[in-house]
Amino acid sequence: MIENLDAKVGKIMDAIESQGLADRTITVLLSDHGEMAGAHGSWAKVQPYEESIGIPLIVAGPGVPAARLDPLVSTKDLFPTLLGLMGLAPRASVPGCDLAPVIRGSGSAPERPGVMLEMVWEQVPGAKFHRQIWRGFRSRRYKYTVIGDLESGLRPWQWPRHGWVPFPGGNDAVSFHRACPASVLPASRPSGSEGGPAMTRAFQSTRRGSAPSGTA
User: Fold this and answer.
1) Whole-angstrom Cα distance, residue 171 to residue 9?
2) Does any domain span residue 3?
3) pTM for this entry
4) What is d(CA 36, CA 17) in angstroms, rounded to the nearest whole number?
5) Are 119 and 199 within one domain?
6) Are residues 192 and 127 part of one domain?
7) How far is it, in rounded angstroms, from Cα 171 to Cα 37?
8) pLDDT score of 71 more than 80
9) Helices marked H in 38-157 — which ranges?
10) C-alpha angle 116-53-36 in degrees, rounded to nearest 5
11) Which of 33, 48, 107, 181 is most exposed by smallest CB count within 10 Å?
């Protein structure tokens, strides 16, 4: 699969070059999800592990220096970034950050604590996460994830599990990751809910029928 994709990308790049478009074409290679490929004993996508949530974002073209960058990036950044690479801006306020200056080497990465992760409602009976929802928050160093469904609500799932914190000061890190999404998903928290107020807000949004962006 990777070899075939590499060959097809090569054909596209050859066509751009042969038609004299290379000096005014920005080429972007990306994906909407990663691939477990047997990691953690799992295949396909939908899992909140790095192999699944990490996606390629490779940009080439005029004004784009060769470099490997490591800012925290969300799929919400793609629209404003692609416009920015063309010298354009959205007509109205949109979610996400324009990373074009970062890609061109003329600006710094946005200051933000992390990005949201979302997997909503697998509809195929028998499939993994059927009628389940998971949400997560990924900072530069850690990831905090909760899981649940429309009947039982959300509960802590990946780190911490059963109250176990694996390093000194871990409780502060857990609190930080639970609180960070609050500014992204404003809503009230139902009494007695588990999984942290911010993650419950995401759950409420799904119950109302909205479709969150950046789904796996």
Assistant:
1) 46
2) no
3) 0.69
4) 34
5) yes
6) yes
7) 32
8) yes
9) 50-53, 78-85, 100-104
10) 155
11) 107
Mean of all residue pLDDT scores within the chain? 75
- Residue 109 domain flag: no
Are 119 and 89 contained in the same domain? no
- Identify which has the larger pLDDT, 109 or 170: 109
Model confidence pLDDT, tens digit, residues 76-95: 899 999 999 999 999 888 88
What average pLDDT does range 168-187 have in this prediction?
Answer: 62
| Full residue range of the structural domain in which residue 139 is found | 114-207
Nearest to 165 by CA among 144, 179, 186, 180: 144
Do 70 and 132 lie in a common domain? no
Is there a single domain that holds both residue 136 and residue 182?
Answer: yes
Position 187 confidence tier, pLDDT thresholds 50, 70, 90: very low
Domain count, the chain: 2
pLDDT tens column, 96-128: 899 999 999 998 888 888 888 877 777 788 877
Q: What is the enclosing helix (H) or strand (E) of 194?
A: none
* Element containing residue 190 per DSSP (H, E): none
Domain boundary among 49, 84, 104: 104
Residues 118 and 100 in one domain: no
With a CB cutoff of 8 Å and minimum separation 6, the contacts of 53 are 33, 34, 117, 136, 138, 216
Q: Which token pair is 57? A: 């974002």
pLDDT at 117: 83
Residue 177 CB coordination number (10 Å): 25
